[in-house]
Specification:
- InterPro entries: DUF4426.
- It contains 2 helices and 9 strands.
- The chain is α+β, with helices and mostly antiparallel strands.
């Protein structure tokens, strides 16, 4: 019985740790800026087709969403950015706005090689307001 309690406790700790790490966001003033970059093979073929995303083991999807910090309402903004690998090669990111009901997010794609690391610099603008977020990600070919 002790071992069952121990395993349950370990699983709960692991689950809560994952939940904390799973949220990737920056809070800038009144905005919560959520970001994620992942291999495009994680996207179902029908979803990729719907949003004109190329599925490939060497293609990533970058997803940005901007919410009002207090109301959590999606914000209509302009998103641009670039990704630079460790060799200093820079790739410009072209974002497309996707609206689903009240949700608004911005998608771009990036080609990569196995185990390639990119440093992202994403610019978000709304009227005269401008914010920049920076993050990095290592991609693996699956």
């Amino acid at each position: 019985m002790k071992i069952v309690k121990y395993i349950t406790l370990v699983l709960l700790i692991c689950a809560s740790t994952f939940a904390v790490q799973a949220e990737q966001k920056f809070t800038k003033g009144s905005w919560d800026i959520h970001y994620i970059a992942f291999p495009s093979t994680f996207v179902k073929p029908e979803t990729a087709s719907q949003y004109n995303l190329q599925r490939s083991r060497y293609m990533a999807v970058v997803n940005i969403s901007v919410l009002d910090k207090d109301s959590q309402e999606a914000q209509f903004v302009n998103v641009s950015g670039k990704a630079k690998n460790l060799l200093g090669q820079t790739k410009q990111l072209t974002f497309t706005r996707v609206t689903e009901g009240k949700a608004v997010y911005y998608l771009a794609q990036l080609q990569y090689r196995n185990e390639e690391i990119f440093n992202f610099e994403i610019d978000i603008q709304q009227g005269n307001r401008s914010e920049t977020i920076k993050f990095n990600k290592k991609f693996y070919a699956d």
